[in-house]
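U., I forgot to send this yesterday:
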Amino acid sequence: MGLSTHVLDTMHGCPAAGMKVELFATQGAQATLVKSLILNHDGRNPDGLLFDNDSLKKGTYRLVFDVKGYFAAKGVALPEPNFLNQVSLDFGVAHVNEHYHVPLLVSPWSYSTYRGS
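Result:
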């Protein structure tokens, strides 16, 4: 249960170790930073869940992934301006007794996401 994320670098075929991710709680246009983290060697939060089952609240959230910073740090030659700078995913949590997993598959030119298990 709770909230988790996982990022895979589809350009290099590996977890996005070292990518900066920020989690916000949102209410309308207002966003409040909840947590900032750097993904571990497996492309996951080094502390485990972003929210455990007891901390996850019904509402809306935003995950912001620093795509440009990650690929620049990997030595990828990026155009200026880069096609993707940050990927921002807004999502809702309706059932706090369920697990919400928000994976990101990303390259400098594309991304996809889904609600995982």
